[in-house]
Predict the structure.
Amino acid sequence: MKPAPFAYLRARSLAEAFDALDRHGEEARLLAGGQSLIPALNLRLATPAVLVDINGLAGLAGIALQGGVVRIGALTRHAALEASEIVARHLPLLAEAVPQIAHPAIRSRGTLGGSIALADPAAELPACALALDATIVAMGRAGERRIAARDFFRGLYQTDLQPGELVAAVEFPVQPPERRGCVLELARRQGDYAIVGLAAAATVQGDGALRDPRLVFFGVGPTPVRAAAAEAALAGAGGVAAAQAALERDLDPPADLHGPPQFRRHLARVLLGRAAARLLG
Amino acid sequence: MTGSPLSEIDRPNSYIGRSVPRPNARRLVAGRGAYVDDLRLPRMAHVAFLRSPHAHARILAIHAEEARRAPGVIRVVTGRELAAHCTPWVGVLHHLKGLKSAPQHAMAVDRACWQGEPVCAVVARSRAEAEDAAALIRVDWEELPAVTDMETALDPATPVIHPDLGDNLAFRREHVGGDPDAAFADPEAVVVEATFHTGRHTGVCLEGRSILADWNPAEERLTVYQSTQAPHMMQTVFARHLGLREGQVRVVCKDVGGSYGIKVHVYPDEVATAALSKMLGRPVKFVADRIEGMVSDIHARDHRLRARAAVRRDGTLLAMEVDDLTGIGPYSVYPRTSAVEGNQVVNLCGGPYVLKGYRAKTTVVFQNKTPTCQYRAVGHPIATAVTEGLVDLAAEAIGMDPAEIRRRNLIPDDAYPCTSLSGMRFEALSHHKCLARLLEMMDYERLRAEQAELRKHGIHRGIGLACFIELTNPSPFMYGIGGARISAMDGATVRLDPDGSLAVASGVTEQGQGTEAILAQIAATAVGVPVERVRVVTGDTEVTPYGGGTWASRGAGIGGEAMLQAGLALKEGILAVAGAMLQARPETLDIRGGVVVDRASGAERLPLEELGRVVYFRGDTLPRDLPRELVATRHWTPKEYPFCFTNGAQASYLEVDVETGFVRLLGHWCVEDCGTVINPMLVEEQIRGGVVQGIGGALFEHCVYSPEGQLLSGSLADYLVPMSGEMPDIHVGHVETPTRESALGAKGAGEAGTAGAPAAVQNAINDALRPFGARVLAQPFTPARILAALGRI
Ligand SMILES: Cc1cc2nc3c(=O)[nH]c(=O)nc-3n(C[C@H](O)[C@H](O)[C@H](O)COP(=O)(O)OP(=O)(O)OC[C@H]3O[C@@H](n4cnc5c(N)ncnc54)[C@H](O)[C@@H]3O)c2cc1C
């Protein structure tokens, strides 16, 4: 299949990108790694009139440790996250997630900003952003706007991004050593979007308790889903079993070709059990 | 072949049995392949098809005015308009008694019968413009009820898809061999029964279907560049339906990027493309994209089978009974028909075993889904899954080891020739040798011990065995007898050029599997030249001998034997000339390494390039009446047996995560007997690729339809092809029982991997699940199905 006709603009500056977004409004689409957008164009699921290529905006890429946060530019490729020592040291949860995204060829082009802006409900990075209490840095002509990850993902492929804005960076608070995390997912084939995934984090001290747990499931709803009831149960006396039972309240997964809703619920419970074992192990 | 005396093909400079690399590999890897999409002709136009979005709907009106005015558009043609230029076809074969189908047009005329059926063609300067314009066409549809469930297709309440046919039954056949009723009534019989499903799936070729048709009005000739397995068959088809003589049509296959049976059928959009070229008097190209390929490439293996077997407590299998139901879409595919798969199930179930009774029935029904037809190992994976599933159930019922029950019941290796209860004649098979070799290669006893040990730790592994037969090298009894112009014979031509090199041509075709490599090996061996000096041409009806092409693993067995005989004939011609030049009797000479030598001593006498120089440029120096034919053509077709049969055994070792239902494949083994192994590397590649496709069907691939007949798994995001990451190491072993029908002895190796793999995986999963009393018999064995069997969801 061939995409519908479109105009192509390679932005040389942020201002040029904002101009194009202003001028073409709904008709314009930013092009980052293209790993989601180009297939959508070829399938004619998306038919924008103008593609605004932001790959030339070097300022949007890069990983920097600034005080207590790791700021990662939107154009940072998945492969760069994978190779980053800063990420490995300070955001081990993110480091564990990235190799589970797609395949090497896709990771070498796909970007953090693209993944966050697309907000695919089965994607790893939006779930990681939630689990790590990240802040999305949106930028528009008027300047930067910071949005907590929990407020950013609004619905199926819906975010808090406003017309004329782009994702400039994501800021992840540096994780202290006692804050452990893991990303577990179940996919039929290596590199497929997860049927069910879980980005889990908790503070673990000597006593074997999981404090302040974050349980963010992906692939189970319109957005990454923070399992609040299960988190409370996990931190409480009931432990893992109670948390697994509580998922019944947290999750309302869809049926799809992989199986019925109870299939995903079941897998979510299994992943929760495994994640808890990992965090405590 | 150890122990047997050296034959002509085992001479010192033989290439038979050697892993010679493909001659075309470097070219393809260097990006110098010439697939249809690479070809560009002057004034070439592109066609895109508007396809039915409905499974079943009447076409009330097509509004194409806007599309006709769109940029770049050359012509918009509806099905009704095209029908004036292209006759419909009916996919039946006379020997499949009672098989019926309805006339099928290249594009729907009044009514679309499956989601994806082409309805309207847009020819434009570029494919993109053609797609843009196609998006502007509006069709007024009247939706009709869709027949989607094959179980109810014959119910009186179900609408009949083609009222002229009377009902939705395409074909039914029942076969009884021996005395099944007596066997099931045996007082010692333990009867096991189960229902199996093989999921509808398709063969995903790297290169999609593609065609470039070029009607030249000045010559009144149609040249078709096509990604097909059967150029001569397609020549007939284009001629017949476009009102031409066969001689007016030339079909050329340049490189073909995989086919697996998908590209051996007649596709409406491809015939339409040829008709459009004729209508427009210019070249028209059509390349199916992945999305339209998923709804228009043939599907296969949509079967439900109720089956039972009777076994005595001592492990003697007595009988099998299989009741097969399959849905084939709205038309039987032309010209091979969609009844063959079900027919094969009847022919093949129980095939490796000695039985006293056999009853099999297939019921083939129409439905409003993509048509199904022959895909790699036609019917075999289905028959093997059922047969081997029953054997494992029988073993379980009497508490016998799965390897042991097979040993006790496989046809003895010294019982040949013999005929199965389904009427299949076997020349010589090697089930016991293959099974013994398999168990040794996998170290069966060690794996059983490991399985038992790990079970104690909550790790659930399974071992699955599958013995199988594989039908190859069909004689005219497969298609010709039913009235189809599909050649069971193939020819080969071998020519010595003045530089001492060979130019060879064959009627069988290259799809990436390495046919050209083995043809070169055979020609080099037969004549006695280095294989580098052989150039191979295949896939051009104008320059190769007539033949059937590539299907039913026939390339090596039939095309290879023709090449061997042609090479030997040429050699005789060369030695006659050499004898005259050297004043020696030809019988005292031989050709080795491209040089005429003294047969006894091996002393070099005359390089072929010198012989070539003299024959072509100084013929005046040769005796006046010396024949100097340096080209030989030979043809070959099987005559003794309707089909050749190969056999083999496979095993799968895997782990089931009983919490998630996920299966991890740990190892796969296949020991196969394809007769003479011409090129071990290529045979092993065929086996491995076939095993992967078999595993695909067992675990991943599934054409899932909504009740309304919409394909839900219509892209490669949802239709899961097997990927290397999930594949286990696949170990291949060979047993060689050459067929005595030919001098070469090759039986064919292209489909054996696919035939046995799903059964092995099925049995391994069920072996792992046995402690839980759980069982899965519906492919693909997905995590959800396994969890459901375990009662966890
Ligand atoms: C076969 C395959 C498998 C995949 N598997 C996975 C997987 O397992 N997990 C996973 O997470 N992803 C997966 N992906 C998607 C991949 O990770 C994408 O690259 C990613 O989701 C989007 O990033 P991109 O840079 O390619 O974005 P693009 O495709 O360029 O853009 C995606 C969307 O985001 C918008 N956009 C891009 N950048 C910005 C920005 N800075 N600000 C605002 N909007 C922006 C675009 O306009 C577009 O709408 C897969 C992709 C493929 C092709």
